[in-house]
Specification:
Largest sheet: none
Structural class: mainly alpha
Shape: rod-shaped
Helix content: 55-70%
Number of strands: 0
Strand content: under 5%
Distance between the termini: 72 Å
Length: about 45
């Protein structure tokens, strides 16, 4: 009994590729947040 559902693999379901920018953006933004908090700590001492 076919209910009309179509099953496709993961790559086709995502419909594209990732450029792995998370590897760059996540550490960079984390570093900037740490620097910002260190500056705040030094200013408010």
């Amino acid at each position: 009994m076919d209910d009309g559902e179509r099953h496709i693999d993961t790559t086709r379901a995502r419909a594209g590729q990732t450029n792995h920018m998370t590897r760059v953006i996540l550490p960079a933004s984390l570093g900037l947040v740490v620097v910002a908090f260190l500056l705040l700590l030094l200013i408010w001492r």
